[in-house]
Amino acid sequence: MTVPRHEFLQAMRRVANSVAIVTTDGAAGRHGATVSSFCSVSADPPSLLACLRADSRIARAVSGNGEFCVNVLEHSAHELAERFAGRADRQLADRFTQVAIVTGAGRPAVLAAATAAFCCRLVDTLASGSHLVVIGEVVEVRAAGGRPLAYLDGGYASVSLPFPSSQR
Ligand SMILES: Cc1cc2nc3c(=O)[nH]c(=O)nc-3n(C[C@H](O)[C@H](O)[C@H](O)COP(=O)(O)O)c2cc1C
Questions:
Q1: pLDDT (tens digit, 9 = 90+) per residue, 108-146?
Q2: Which of 13, 46, 115, 131 is the most exposed place for a label (fewest CB within 10 A)?
């Protein structure tokens, strides 16, 4: 027996997550989508995972291309997060139109709005419930600094500076 879906979702609203745009490119085409369900898996080797709705274009494109980049967004990039969640798809043929890209021709795009970017080679997938868990080994990182964008209680938030006593 699992808990009712709405109870699960209600409790998950209390969890603060960073917001990222997963990008991919290659034979299966260029695509990008906003995600909050991603985390590190291991430092040996450096790897991370993201949970993508199995019937989404991003899941199909990442599976087909075999590589992806997790662009953790800087705190002012909430409009970009909305765009890559498909909110402007009716007006925009391509989500990448006029989006500043650091590197990416033919490779998963590293976005200028990323406070950190993790470029990965897809090494494993796991189908679980409605989602596909994609696991990538990190082949390149870019850390630009700045504060990350967070998602909490159904809205965007900015992370405040560390407590004075916290260890760094
Ligand atoms: C803040 C935020 C977080 C999201 N997190 C996820 C996520 O972790 N996994 C996912 O599959 N979709 C997530 N979405 C929804 C996708 O961004 C959206 O469905 C997107 O259009 C991907 O579908 P597509 O590739 O078919 O366009 C999130 C949306 C928002 C606004």
A1: 999 999 999 999 999 999 999 999 999 999 999 998 888
A2: 13
Report d(CA 109, CA 30) in Å as an integer.
9
Q: Does 164 map to a domain? A: no
Domain membership flag for residue 165: no
Residues 17-71: tens digit of each pLDDT: 999 999 999 999 999 999 999 999 999 999 999 999 999 999 999 999 999 999 9
- Residue 48 Cβ contacting ligand 1 at under 6 Å: no
Tokens of 99: 């989006």
* Beta carbon of 96 within 6 Å of any ligand 1 atom: no
Indicate which CATH number applies to the domain containing 140. 2.30.110.10
The closest alpha carbon to 71, from 42, 102, 30, belongs to 102
Q: Is 96 inside a domain boundary?
A: yes
**Per-residue tokens: 77:** 């990039």
In terms of residue numbers, what domain contains 43?
18-158
25 vs 94: CA distance, rounded Å: 13
Does residue 29 sit within a domain? yes
Please tell me the distance between residue 79's alpha carbon and the centre of ligand 1 in angstroms: 14
pTM of model > 0.70: yes
